[in-house]
Design brief:
With 53 residues, the protein is mainly α. It contains three helices and no strands.
């Protein structure tokens, strides 16, 4: 499991790029940012935490 600082850095990096076509979305929302790493990298984070980052 990644350290919290690494998770935070990964989430921030994720929001700086356009969502991939396979995500099926045109832009990131806090909820979508929370779902995507769970599906692709097994990083689990609540969307409330994403909104605070």
């Amino acid at each position: 499991m990644p350290a919290p600082a690494q998770e935070r850095a990964r989430i921030i990096a994720l929001t700086r790029v356009t969502p991939p076509d396979r995500a099926g979305i045109s832009h990131w929302s806090a909820r979508e940012v929370a779902k995507y790493p769970k599906r692709t990298e097994n990083i689990s984070v609540f969307w409330h935490s994403i909104a605070r980052i």
